[in-house]
C-alpha cells in the first residue's frame, strides 16, 4: 500500500484559497487518489478523486502532476465550516483485498 | 437516497461485556467496511465484508468479529471488552468491489465507551 504524507495542520483565513499537498512516492500504476473530509465525531465524507492531471467538482479541485508522486487538494474561498481534518488516500486493490489506509490527515483551521 | 446508517449512536459497556454494532449500507452497495477511530487518532481498518463473506481484516484480535446478512447489512461484535476499545466505530459501504477507484461512503459512527 502506498504511504501518504501530508502536513499535520494548516491555518487559513476565511475567503482564502487553501492548498493541501500530499506526497505518495510509491503510488502504483492502478492506484487512484482520493480525498476525504472529516468533522469531529462524524464519519469521513468523500470530497474528490482523481488519477492524473486535474479534476474539479463543486467542492474542490485536485491537481496531480505527471509523475503522480504527489497531489494537491485545492479548496476555493474557504469558510469557517471548512474547518475539519482532510485525509489523502491512495486506493489500492490486489489479490482480492481492498481497504483504505488513512493517515493522520491535515487539520485545517479556518480563522474569521 | 438514504446514506449509511449505524446504530446505536452511543453505546456504554463495562469491561468484559460484549458489544454489538449495526450498519445498513447504501441501497445497492454490496461491500461493507468497519473502521475504528480512537480519540485523536486516525481511522484503523477493521473488517471488510462483501456478498456475505469476510474478505479482509485488519490487525485486530479475534474478539473483533462480524458478519454480513443477505440484505448486505452488517454487524460488528466486540467480545471481552477492554478499556482501550473505547472509540468511534465507523461503517462504510461501496458499490464496486475490489477496484482502486472504489469510493467508500461512511456512516456517522457508533461511539463505544467501555467503563
Structural features:
heterodimer; A: 112 residues; mainly beta; Immunoglobulin-like; 6-stranded mixed beta sheet; 4-stranded antiparallel beta sheet; 0% helix; 52% strand; B: 115 residues; 7-stranded mixed beta sheet; 11 strands; 50% strand; globular
Could you please describe the fold and organization of this structure?
The complex is a heterodimer of chains A (112) and B (115). Chain A has one domain: Immunoglobulin-like (Sandwich), CATH 2.60.40. Chain A has no helices and ten strands. Chain A has strands at residues 9-13, 18-23, 32-38, 45-50, 53-56, 61-64, 70-75, 84-94, 97-99, 106-111. In chain A, strands 1, 3, 4, 8, 9 and 10 form a six-stranded mixed sheet that branches. In chain A, strands 2-7-6-5 form a four-stranded antiparallel sheet, with no helix packed on it. In chain A, a hairpin with a 2-residue loop joins strand 8 (84-94) and strand 9 (97-99). The N and C termini of chain A lie far apart (38 Å). The relative contact order of chain A is 0.34. The model of chain A has no long low-confidence stretch (mean pLDDT 90). Chain B is mainly beta and 115 residues long. Chain B has one domain (5-95): Immunoglobulins (Immunoglobulin-like, Sandwich). Helix content of chain B is 0%, strand content 50%. Chain B contains no helices and eleven strands. The radius of gyration of chain B is 13 Å and the shape is globular. Classes of the chains: A mainly beta (112), B mainly beta (115). At the A-B interface, strand 4, strand 8 and strand 9 of A face strand 4, strand 5, strand 9 and strand 10 of B.
| Largest sheet, strands/sense/barrel of chain B | 7 strands, mixed
CATH hierarchy class name of chain A: Mainly Beta
Shape estimate of chain A: globular
Average pLDDT of chain B: 92
Question: Main β-sheet of chain A, in a few words?
Answer: 6 strands, mixed
- Counting DSSP H or I runs of 4 or more residues, the number of helices of chain B is 0
Distance between the termini of chain B: 37 Å
Query: According to CATH, what is the topology of chain A?
Result: Immunoglobulin-like
At the fourth CATH level, what is the homologous superfamily of chain B? Immunoglobulins
Amino acid at each position: 500500500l502506498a504511504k501518504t504524507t501530508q502536513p499535520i495542520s494548516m491555518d487559513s483565513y476565511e475567503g482564502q484559497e487553501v492548498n493541501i499537498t500530499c506526497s505518495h512516492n510509491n503510488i502504483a500504476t492502478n492506484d487512484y487518489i482520493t480525498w476525504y473530509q472529516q468533522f469531529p465525531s462524524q464519519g469521513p465524507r468523500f470530497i474528490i478523486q482523481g488519477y492524473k492531471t486535474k479534476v474539479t467538482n463543486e467542492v474542490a479541485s485536485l491537481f496531480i502532476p505527471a509523475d503522480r508522486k504527489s497531489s494537491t487538494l485545492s479548496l476555493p474561498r474557504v469558510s469557517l465550516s471548512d474547518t475539519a481534518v482532510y485525509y489523502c488516500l491512495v486506493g489500492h486493490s490486489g489479490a482480492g483485498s481492498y481497504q483504505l489506509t488513512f493517515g493522520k490527515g491535515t487539520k485545517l483551521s479556518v480563522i474569521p | 437516497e438514504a446514506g449509511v446508517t449505524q446504530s446505536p449512536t452511543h453505546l456504554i459497556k463495562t469491561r468484559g461485556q460484549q458489544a454489538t454494532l449495526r450498519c445498513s449500507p447504501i441501497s445497492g452497495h454490496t461491500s461493507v467496511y468497519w473502521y475504528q477511530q480512537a480519540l485523536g487518532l486516525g481511522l484503523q481498518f477493521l473488517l471488510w465484508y462483501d456478498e456475505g463473506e469476510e474478505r479482509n481484516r485488519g490487525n485486530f484480535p479475534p474478539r473483533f468479529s462480524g458478519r454480513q446478512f443477505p440484505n448486505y447489512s452488517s454487524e460488528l461484535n466486540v467480545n471481552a471488552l477492554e478499556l482501550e476499545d473505547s472509540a468511534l466505530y465507523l461503517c462504510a459501504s461501496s458499490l464496486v468491489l475490489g477496484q482502486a477507484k472504489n469510493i467508500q461512503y461512511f456512516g456517522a459512527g457508533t461511539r463505544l465507551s467501555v467503563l
